[in-house]
């Protein structure tokens, strides 16, 4: 067989303290955190002296490393709207309808759209972008094909009868700003249930240069309703079954209550991650690295299997009574090996996490 060519994929996670229902302020924060990346992208475009074509956007990352500062950028769950809403009426003005990029600005007042901003980011940085946003979907447009991981006795529970559904969603854009797919949160947390319908199931997508990718959202990493068997690891088992290379999880994950006190903050400092939180995320990915514990029927898992990765993009700060854990990170996972924490951000800091991952090409 041909020898493997080692190349790199640069992935990035934005961690911010989202302000409630203040999209413009949150966009300004993201721009500030990305200032150096945007500058790099601008400089390389000027040196290049040409516009990137649509075809070029799908060139694998290793063949265009000098032309872009990052290959994938991920923003947290509900990154630009804030996360805590009282009810459906509270969030309804912020719901967005995905569609062609050219029409996004007609659906919300100028400058208020998470999707429009993310599409602009993708074009500017010439990379894939994932952003969490609150989605509005007509009732007759519900998808049916994704894998429903909920227990069979609750699968038939539909959303409340409305002319439209609201979902806690994550949009994926390519380097031209084209909307590739919208992923919907499948397992809802208590704060989501006040306004969101359950997404239809876990999904994967093939992305040139990144491989098989799954985008899931926060609570999706937990047992369904915190009631199913912990060992089931629904999301990770699905990913192993689908041979997912990269699991991307935008989050608004809470800081453990014993770490929220001022005393705990003084000990840990803003730049220190919540290791208990990261360890928990790793444990929820058990099927990736301990096949004997997996409910998934993984094929071809061996000691020389290529590594898989978890990228979390969590928020920080406090909204209402909720304090978030930050600690956005990248974990590397291989069968029969302990997960390796490649990089992380602190609990209470805003920042940009950038990690170069090796890609094995044969």
UniProtKB/TrEMBL annotation:
Keywords: Hydrolase. PROSITE patterns: CN_HYDROLASE (PS50263). Residues 47-68 have a biased composition (Basic and acidic residues). The keyword Plastid does not apply. Residues 40-68 are annotated as: Disordered. One of its GO terms (molecular function) is protein-N-terminal asparagine amidohydrolase activity. The keyword Nucleus does not apply. Residues 9-359 form the CN hydrolase domain. Transmembrane segments: none annotated. InterPro entries: C-N_Hydrolase, C-N_Hydrolase_sf, Nta1. GO terms for biological process: protein catabolic process. Signal peptide: none annotated. Gene3D superfamilies: Carbon-nitrogen hydrolase. This is Carbon-nitrogen hydrolase.
